[in-house]
């Protein structure tokens, strides 16, 4: 499902049952995986893996799209495995090849895991989005000075 005023640049691939919120811009050659959900007004510059929830400018992966998976009738067993995959992908600093190897070793060969692995193994022109919001916060918040307001 694609919301209103979404811009998809050339050669963008949107897989089955993905949801893109309104006013989102997607860079050329980006792939959006099966059952992924992207929040409105996002700027997507890298591939969003299947079953993930992304939002922001630039878009960052926030979590697994659990509600979307449940609504599509995905089993609790499969959702639990996708959550484990999320941790392997986003809580390590490994490259994609090492992550795929880890997924194959540690997770059950369910259809959803196979879909995720296939997506990660497919050549990417823009790279896989492996950024999460927690990576942005490293210390004090910096606010601009606004003399007109006395701050």
From TrEMBL:
- What Gene Ontology terms describe where this protein resides (cellular component)? membrane
Q: Which InterPro entries match?
A: Acetyltransf_C, Acetyltransf_C_sf, Hexapep_transf_CS, Lipid_A_LpxA, Trimer_LpxA-like_sf
Record bears the keyword Lipid biosynthesis:
yes
Domain named UDP N-acetylglucosamine O-acyltransferase C-terminal is located at: 47-128
Q: Which GO terms describe its biological process?
A: lipid A biosynthetic process
What superkingdom heads the lineage? Bacteria
> GO MF terms on file?
acyl-[acyl-carrier-protein]-UDP-N-acetylglucosamine O-acyltransferase activity
Presence of keyword Cytoplasm: yes
Q: Which Gene3D superfamilies match?
A: Hexapeptide repeat proteins (2.160.10.10), Udp N-acetylglucosamine O-acyltransferase, C-terminal domain (1.20.1180.10)
Tell me which UniProt keywords the record has, alphabetically.
Acyltransferase, Cytoplasm, Lipid A biosynthesis, Lipid biosynthesis, Lipid metabolism, Repeat, Transferase
* Name the record gives this protein: UDP N-acetylglucosamine O-acyltransferase C-terminal domain-containing protein
Question: What is the species listed in this Swiss-Prot or TrEMBL entry?
Answer: candidate division WOR-1 bacterium RIFOXYC2_FULL_46_14
């Amino acid at each position: 499902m694609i919301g209103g005023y979404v811009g998809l640049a050339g050669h963008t691939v949107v897989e089955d049952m993905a949801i893109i919120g309104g006013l989102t811009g997607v860079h050329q050659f980006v792939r959006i995986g099966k059952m992924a959900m992207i929040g409105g007004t996002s700027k997507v510059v890298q591939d969003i893996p299947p079953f993930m929830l992304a939002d922001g400018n630039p878009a960052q992966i926030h979590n697994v799209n659990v509600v979307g998976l449940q609504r599509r009738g995905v089993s609790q067993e499969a959702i639990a495995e996708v959550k484990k995959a999320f941790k392997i992908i986003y809580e390590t600093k490994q490259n994609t090849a090492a992550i795929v190897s880890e997924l194959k070793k540690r997770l059950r060969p369910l259809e959803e895991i196979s879909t995720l692995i296939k997506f990660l193994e497919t050549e990417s022109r823009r790279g896989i989005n492996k950024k999460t919001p927690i990576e942005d916060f490293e210390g004090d918040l910096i606010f601009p000075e606004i003399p007109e307001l006395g701050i």
